[in-house]
Design goal:
503 residues; Isoleucyl-tRNA Synthetase, Domain 1; 45% helix; globular; binds zinc ion
């Protein structure tokens, strides 16, 4: 097929996404033509990124890349939660950041910076494009206070002794359905809450157990506190996303994403806050990815089965016998549909590693394929199937299956069992470039796990070399550079720092 006709065909296809709010797969039409605003809930930065942190960013990165490929101009906002997320995940307990700061004897903002940097460096390795805007909750206190004030003015919140709570009953009395996203039933929530201790902090102030904090009064020893019309305090966890998404994407934007674990209470509360303040849901499409399990078990701190991403890269974990590269991890995540569960095990990672190696090997053969007058292989059907799969609620496992089929055909040509003309060769080359590297975003510098380990080792050497340079030990810094060159590794110095490549 001619490239031009392929492009025309592509434009007539439509992206479909499963919308949790309507419980239907819907055609995606952006609010402003050819522009797409996406908000994804980011990490609470109080610990090193673990396996549970990688799926969402990779899934929404693929969605972003695909929309860009479809001609959309995408504004992608992913926040950093550095205040307001309490240990109990509800309105009780200490702030997660403040607790970690106390444990590490650091400023809370030092904790936030450390783990934000760590998170972003993991995301870089996973080839997740950085957000267009990465707002921090602590940097948007004014916006949150303003939104709380609006909700108070609408009569859907109340103040008690310096704290402000969202009034779920008033919200429902104004014909809103609290539970429309998560499917939770308020009466069940009330009955469930009845079993909990009423002594929990804040519970006695609430008119109803389903009410949630918009603003919490802080005790004098609380480090993170700001002045507000209700006295010194700090914002609740849910209001930051409502305030920041409205600020950067408008009061009504295209896609709100996150994990299914955030459906309730976080996203349900976001919808309630926006409806109370702006009279409508903040986002047109609500897209949720499923969670990762470990050897069939839910990942949880209490089960002590969490794996840090760094441990995955190094293999330094009791469930692993070796390290895996970022490309393998990304490929593994995309081998499952984002709404299905994804079970992690070393066996599964080993299988992903093998599969990825097969695709990379085929990709590397393409350039050297001998061109014939006639092509006995075609790739346009594969591109059609890939497009269809991506349009069909981002079905990445089908995309990968089609890439394997492309690799099979490439191997047949390479073995002399089939022939390829220059058009087909161009097509299969663009197929790997646009989908394998482009939309799926498989990083190219860390194809094999060896490279993942190699990367960590080289990072260490690069660090040692810059330390040597700083202490004016140029003999050592030169020695590191020269010895590496002898081993086929070239170091490249630039303003941004030092990177490496295989010579
Ligand atoms: Zn959020």
């Amino acid at each position: 097929m001619e490239i031009t006709s392929y492009i025309i065909k592509k434009c007539t296809k439509i992206v479909k996404l499963y919308n949790t709010l309507s419980r239907n797969t819907e055609e995606f039409t952006s609010i402003i033509p050819q522009k797409a605003g996406i908000y994804v809930c980011g990490p609470t930065v109080y610990g090193a990124p673990h396996l549970g942190h990688v799926r969402g960013p990779i899934v929404f990165d693929v969605l972003r890349r695909y929309l860009i490929q479809q001609g959309y101009q995408v504004r992608f906002v992913r926040n950093i939660t550095d205040v307001g997320h309490l240990v109990g995940d509800a309105d009780e307990g200490e702030d997660k950041l403040q607790k970690q700061a106390r444990l590490e004897q650091l400023e809370p903002m030092e904790v936030a910076q450390t783990y934000t940097d760590m998170y972003n460096s993991v995301m870089d390795r996973l080839n997740v494009i950085r957000p267009s805007i990465e707002p921090k909750a602590s940097g948007h206190i004014i916006e949150q206070i303003e939104m709380i004030q609006t909700i108070l003015n609408q009569g859907m919140a109340y103040e008690v002794d310096g704290s402000v709570y969202f009034d779920v009953e008033a919200y429902r009395n104004a014909s809103n359905n609290y539970g429309e996203l998560s499917g939770r039933v308020v009466e069940d929530l009330v009955a469930g809450a009845g079993n909990q201790s009423r002594d929990l902090e804040g519970q006695t102030e609430k008119r109803n157990p389903t009410d949630f904090a918009l603003w919490k009064k802080s005790s004098p020893e609380h480090i993170m506190q700001w002045s507000s019309p209700w006295g010194k305090g700090y914002p609740g966890w849910h209001i930051e996303c409502s305030a920041m998404s409205a600020k950067y994407l408008g009061e009504f934007f295209d896609i709100h994403g996150g994990g299914m674990d955030l459906l309730f209470p976080h996203h349900e509360c976001e919808i309630a806050q926006s409806k109370a303040a702006h009279k409508h849901t903040p986002a047109k499409y609500w897209v949720h990815h499923n969670m990762i399990t470990i050897n069939g078990q839910k990942m949880a701190k209490s089960l002590n089965n969490g794996i840090k991403v760094e441990e995955l890269f190094t293999g330094n974990h009791e469930l692993l016998t070796r390290g895996f590269g970022a490309a393998t991890l990304r490929f593994f995540v995309l081998q499952a549909h984002y709404r299905g569960t994804l079970d992690f095990s070393e066996e599964a990672l080993l299988a992903s590693d093998k599969g990825l190696a097969r695709l990379v090997a085929a990709e590397q053969l393409i350039e050297g394929l001998k061109v014939s007058e006639v092509s006995t292989v075609d790739f346009s059907d594969i591109i059609d199937s890939i497009e269809y799969a991506l349009n069909d609620d981002l079905n990445t496992p089908i995309v990968i299956a089609q890439l394997f089929e492309a690799a099979r055909r490439v191997n047949l040509v390479n073995d002399g069992k089939e022939t390829i003309d220059s058009n087909s060769k161009d097509l299969v080359s663009s197929l790997f470039r646009d989908y394998f590297r482009g939309v799926l975003g498989i990083p190219s510098n860390q194809d094999s796990s060896d490279n993942g380990t190699l990367d960590s080792v080289l990072k260490l050497l690069i660090e040692l070399r810059s330390e040597a340079k700083l202490s004016k030990n140029y003999a050592l810094s030169d020695q590191i550079r020269n010895k590496l060159k002898e081993s086929g590794i070239e170091l490249m110095d630039s303003k941004e720092g030092t990177s490496w490549k295989k010579a």
